Amino acid sequence: MLALFLVLLALLSLSNCHCHKEATISELRLAFSHNRVSSRQLVEFYLGEIKKLNPVLKGVLEVNPDALYQADRADRERAAKVPRSLVGLHGIPVLLKDTIGTKDKLNTTGGSFALLGSIVPRDAGIVSRLRKAGAIILGKATLSEWSNFRSLNAPSGFSPRGGQGKNPYVLSATPCGSSSGPAISVAANMVAVSIGTETDGSILCPASFNSVVGIKPTVGLTSRAGVIPISPSLDTVGPICRTVSDAVYVLEAIVGFDYNDAEATKKASRYIPYGGYTQFLKPGGLKGKRIGVIRNPFFVFSNGSNLAQVFEKQLQTLRHEGTILIDNLEITNLDTILNVTASGEAVVTIAEFKIAINTYLKSLIKSPVRSLSDIISFTQKFGDIENITNFGQEIFLASQATNGIRDLEKAAITNMARLTRDGYEKMMLENRLDAVVTPGANISPVLAIGGFPAISVPAGYDNKGVPIGICFSGLKGSEPTLIEISYGFEQVTNVRKVPTFLH
């Protein structure tokens, strides 16, 4: 009870700094230009909020001891009118999921003590882009340990280093994972914007449950180099922010070719539009769009839930704004796709993880562990200290038992491609759809095996006050259209509200 009281007190105290609360990147840039706030003041404000709120919410794992130094440099560059200081993310604090490597004083551990003290060889590809844009790396966000890939029994949003992340709207509700910390932190205004990663649902789900915007980019649109991996076939890196416009500003800063993730980023670079992504932040983006509605099983809600009414209202909003809804569509073999074992997703990710994590660990300049086998041994030895013995590590053990990409894995890859071609892709093309709309993040396995993009936008709240998002998804490279749709929806609905910190 005392903890809840302190959180509520901290929330009320934000009124003294209302100029920062819920501020968007555009609003912050305007404040910079009129000298109403400096980057140093902004960083100090967020550090203060982290100090007050994080003991309960546990969205931030560690803060960057050089954040104020970076803020001072941004202020000096702005005063000198350095060209990069006038646009984009310059001087804006960014929080990174603790799988995204930074060559600085911050740790990169995936939430595990096994990697505490490890030293990465270089910044992750997207971090290099953020620094080039002048963004301030505020710190690392909490997550589900190892991006939720150690055990089927581990609580979502929990890591040994960060503890149990809390949903800032209803503290007893799931924050969802694995990018829980980035979503918690921006929702509770402990940072301006954040970045997460997704293999299957790890951006879309926390965005939905924390009433924020999450963009899952087409696989390869953003570099995965320097990011603790799960599956190179499925992994992607994307923004989690409070508004569509903020998320698009971040997306624009981090996309592009990276020599250290050459194959995937070269292939996806052809999707990047000339002139960038912010040009698609325009009113009326819903008009004329053909959007498919898959009722079964995505629009099925529990008895007594108000969510059926919430989403019928939002579908009506789409129609009112000129969207052409193609209702009651079906994806061929959807039951198989949603079953990660039957689709082949589990087989592929388990095999790829061992290869990818061993490669990552061997690349580290310093590390307590150098292989998946070392991680397993570490967990067995120190599980009692970490208080995670009961969670097990059955996924790790299954991955360790694999031996490369052999016939079984190749068959699974072929099966995923067939299911994608005959399912989601065929439905999109036959109905000439611009996007598909679904509640929450339950469509994520469909998008994962196809490498497809999606954007989650706040859509409403259930009877208990727990948020839920609306997910707009499309084919590879459809980010411009998804941005138009998501921004258009956000502007006419304006659903998001500040957290309530309820039990």
UniProtKB/TrEMBL annotation:
What InterPro entries does UniProt report for this protein, alphabetically? Amidase_dom, AS_sf
Q: Which UniProt keywords apply?
A: Signal
Superkingdom? Eukaryota
Q: Which residues form the Amidase domain?
A: 42-446
Among Pfam families, the record links this protein to:
Amidase
Record keyword Zinc-finger present:
no
Q: Which SUPFAM superfamilies match?
A: Amidase signature (AS) enzymes
Give the signal peptide, or none: 1-17
Record-given protein name: Amidase C869.01
Q: Organism, per UniProt?
A: Artemisia annua
